[in-house]
TrEMBL record, chains A, B:
The keyword Metal-binding applies. PANTHER family: PYROPHOSPHATE--FRUCTOSE 6-PHOSPHATE 1-PHOSPHOTRANSFERASE, PYROPHOSPHATE--FRUCTOSE 6-PHOSPHATE 1-PHOSPHOTRANSFERASE SUBUNIT ALPHA. Pfam families: PFK. GO terms for biological process: photosynthesis; response to glucose. Keywords: Cytoplasm, Glycolysis, Kinase, Magnesium, Metal-binding, Transferase. It comes from the Eukaryota. InterPro entries: Phosphofructokinase_dom, PKF_sf. It comes from Asparagus officinalis (Garden asparagus). This is Phosphofructokinase domain-containing protein. GO terms for molecular function: 6-phosphofructokinase activity; diphosphate-fructose-6-phosphate 1-phosphotransferase activity; metal ion binding. One of its GO terms (cellular component) is cytosol. Residues 118-410 form the Phosphofructokinase domain. Signal peptide: none annotated.
Length: 572, 572
């Protein structure tokens, strides 16, 4: 295999790279910025960095031409994700190409090459141990490969290292199969494409089977954590009959009975077309998106934090929470009582929401049959949980390329002496030779989650991005949803291909969105420069007047949009 | 796609085909042959047929040069299997190439193109309805695509049609994902390769996940019916830690406690190497291979045939069966009480043997921990059933080719006017242009299952072939089993490829066996001809003496080996 595979021209081995810095960064949630800047005094507000091929013409930018020996540590943090190893491959090649005496050290933790240990580097003890190890090993850089939680930890480590004058620079890499580390700077995560393709393959097989057997409803739960990105992408790839997105449930505040009713109505509508089979996709995070179940889980976790033992929890719940708890089947009750994960969410992979829903739907259909409102055949469900069978998959070509390039970028971030940055590749929906390589301060991706009124409290961190219900991918899904439901237009993308047709496909959710945020930031800078160059002292009164009036209006709109109360909708 | 794809030279479109007939056929179990010949007076003992490209030199063979219009019906019988549609494609192309006015009609039943209805064509009512339909539609041929049960039905139909002078010829095609329609004439079934490759892909992903997470034992049950062919092939492809083959359990008469103990000993041996993860493969037929469970199931099915209701069965079991029944967890009890399938086996896909074993192993490990004989970490199991997600897969390249060729052969069988034959392709482990195309009477593949002493009783039928524990594939597995168990030499064949490296792989179990039975039959005929041509009247006394003595010895050995009591071992 060509080790230079998929690397954009800018970074191909041996070329000299220049770093171009953008403006200092802020955060998407303007109102949290002061909280974040106070928490990260050494690493907040750093500029964006773009890595470009150095050309003779450009002289003002920072060209990295010296490549002293460097010592870099790399660690997988949290759950495994396909493609993680390819980051290491890219990083190793970049390091060795620029200086063969440089060293890459792997720390045990995460993924099969290095094994999996703890899910976090967060407590004072963990941070101090990490610092001590970095000093003892004389590391110039520490690369942390992981998702939302791991990269939050990376930012915290970077700040702590800067504060204590530890010279190790910390770099994060967005690798998580859930696809929920998404923001202005990060279009996609390594692993997501593979997970969606493996899951779509088997969901599609299940769809074909449903259509052949004509007697089962398959309820398929997908490993995806809180957000439903995996479910949305798989829906666009496979066209199953029904997908219950957690984000829709949250927005509409649907109760578990509302959801059951919706599924039953779908079963009934299909029965009227003489169809007694179907495929229903359920993201594992759905259970937490149901308001009353979420409230119940919060009560349970609160009691657990107070040290209440498992046997005593149910008796100490509030009356309404207790009523819901007692209504649930015993197996689900037991699963809800499991201790929460390191990010405080429930153990989503262990809660069999698909069985709960299949059970409730069956009961409701039997009730409708008794009442005579449903006259079709008996409802039969078969339940599946798809998670472990995708997580260990060989990475797709896209994930290999993306991960390899991110590994390269990590080296250049360290060579440029940057700390607290995440490696980024944008313009991903274009062919790899048009990808843009860069780095963004992790603090610029942070938000503060808990609010009192409009005042943010709580610790700044990266938070899982949920599906943008105004985004193009979701809109595309919505347009097709009723056809998916009734027409059985199942689509089988087949197994992931490494060569030939299909090898170069990319996630739908990546390809339909307008991305290239970094490119658009650059475009804005060009406009501003252009205005400056036109409106120079000596320009006509008319030009100055037009510029002032236009800019006044632009700044006013933007000020309103960035005010604390603004939540994405223009106030009317 | 090239419609001539994968067709051996002999049958490529437009070439004239000649049929070469071999000797009349017998059955592998010599002692049943008279029972079968009595049951199938019109279709037993027909000769093998070989289809070859007609060359100018050969004149004595039957060359099919006339291609009148024919009307053919095709039906999928029983469960769906990847590649079934490709048989129709091959059949349709062959029919239309030889006479564009010929007609192919599809009957509803099985698979998604035609939908699934009943699993059999067996009762007098079904046979008569089929005959009436064939006559009404003026069918020259009826092609039945399916597994062991469907092809037994095909043979019965053929005999019944011949007896009643119905002119429709019946042809069977070996398409079953279980890979259990295996005999002297049939090396492999359409669908098996795909199923094993899809299952191996996800088993391998599970193995990688186990090795990454280092904390779970995955218990994976595979859809495979009575035999363990799928499990054996997947084991050779993925190298999981442990595979419990039903055939081994049957042979060694292992009880459910023996199996539990074996798994626990494996867990303990791995814990001593500080390994607390693993992957255990369980064929769905295992449950019927455990002697005491099989006996229990027989009792339950017997009571069901007597019309005893589900609630009353447990009270009418014999004392020992009742004791076992009560010992089992309630969910398993419920599953054992399901009505048997059309082939009298239990509803294997519904019995969660993997959960039963995981439950028993956990209990035993806890017991060992309490007793102090096990000092390792707590045993954690996650259970999976892989079936539906493979059954609807796109067929592999091998299955496409194989199915397409079988479809072609069906046409030539009908053009040659043969009835009660199965289409066969041998030499499958060689590239497609070396495949040998033929047809064998289905009756020659039959056995009679129930014996009183050495006397066969019961109805002749095709029976699922079990794993040959003296075969090379099993031997290969056995040699590696202890390394699989302890060394975690997991192998990930990756997703099925349609182009590039890996696209042309074939099942291990196909490639390691010495096959080409038909080729060897031909070789034997050549030897016999050679002897005849040497020992002609006029040959020397010495030659005649040597021939007589040698042939006497050969016939004696073969007579002993074919005697009723002979069960595959030379009597000492």
């Amino acid at each position: 295999m060509n080790s230079d595979y998929g690397v954009p021209r800018e970074l191909s081995e041996g070329t000299t790279v220049r770093v171009e810095f953008g403006d200092g960064t802020t955060t998407a949630d303007y109102s949290s910025s002061h909280v974040i800047s106070r928490a990260f005094p050494h690493t907040y507000g750093q500029p964006l960095a773009h890595f470009l091929r150095a050309t003779a013409k450009v002289t003002d930018a920072h060209i990295i031409s010296e490549h002293p020996v460097i010592r870099v540590g790399v660690v997988f943090s949290g759950r495994q994700s396909p493609g993680g190893h390819n980051v290491i491959w890219g990083l190793h090649n970049a390091i060795k190409t620029h200086n063969p005496t440089s060293v890459l050290l792997g720390f045990v933790g995460g993924f099969d090459l290095l094994g999996r240990t703890v899910d976090q580097i967060r407590t004072t003890e963990q941070v101090n141990a990490t610092r001590a190890a970095c000093i003892a090993l004389k590391l110039d850089g520490l690369v942390i490969i992981g998702g939302v939680t791991s990269n939050s930890d990376a930012a915290q480590l970077a700040e702590s290292f800067a504060e204590t004058k530890c010279s190790t620079k910390v770099v994060g890499v967005p690798v998580t199969l859930y696809g929920d580390l998404k923001n202005q700077f990060v279009e996609m995560n390594v692993g997501f494409d593979t997970i969606c393709r493996v899951n779509s393959q088997i969901i599609s097989n299940i769809c074909t089977d449903a259509l052949s057997a004509e007697k089962y409803y398959y309820f398929v739960r997908l490993m995806s954590r809180k957000a439903s990105h995996v479910a949305l992408e798989c829906a666009l790839q496979s066209h199953p009959n029904l997908v219950i997105l957690g984000e829709e449930v949250s927005l509409s505040k649907l109760t578990i009975f509302d959801i059951t009713k919706q599924i039953c109505d779908a079963v009934q509508a299909r029965a009227e077309q003489d169809k007694y089979h179907g495929v229903v996709i359920i993201p594992e995070g759905l259970i937490e998106s149901i308001p009353e179940v979420y409230a119940l889980l919060q009560e349970i976790h609160g009691l657990q934090r107070q040290g209440v033992s498992v046997e005593n929890i149910s008796s100490q719940l509030s009356p309404w929470a207790s009523a819901l708890f007692e209504f649930l089947p015993p197996s689900i009750r037991k699963q809800l009582l499991l201790l929460p994960e390191s990010d405080d969410s429930a153990q989503l992979s262990q809660i069999e929401t698909e069985k709960l829903l299949a059970h409730l739907v069956e009961a409701e259909m039997n009730k409708r049959t008794k009442e005579g409102t449903y006259k079709g055949k008996k409802f039969n469900a078969i339940c599946h949980f798809f998670g472990y069978q995708a997580r260990g998959a060989l990475p797709s070509k896209f994930d290999c390329d993306y991960a390899y390039v991110l590994g390269h970028i990590c080296y250049h971030i360290l060579a440029a002496g940057l700390n607290g940055y995440m490696a980024t590749v944008t313009n991903l929906k274009q062919p790899a030779n048009k990808w843009r390589c860069g780095a963004a301060p992790i603090t610029a991706m942070m938000t503060v989650k808990q609010y009192i009124g409009a005042t943010p409290i709580g610790k700044p961190a990266l938070h899982p991005a949920t599906i943008d219900l105004k985004g193009k991918a979701y809109q595309l899904f919505r347009e097709k949803a009723s056809s998916f439901l009734l027409d059985d237009i199942y689509r089988n993308p087949g197994p992931m291909q490494f060569e030939g047709p299909g090898a170069d496909v990319k996630p739908f959710t990546l390809c339909v969105e307008d991305q290239d945020y970094m490119g658009r930031i650059k475009k804005l800078q060009e406009y501003l420069e252009k205005v400056k160059s036109i409106v120079k002292p000596g320009c006509s009164q008319e030009v100055l007047k037009a510029a002032l009036s236009s800019m006044a209006s632009v700044t006013e709109v933007l000020s309103v949009m960035s005010a604390p109360s603004f939540n994405g909708q223009i106030p009317l």
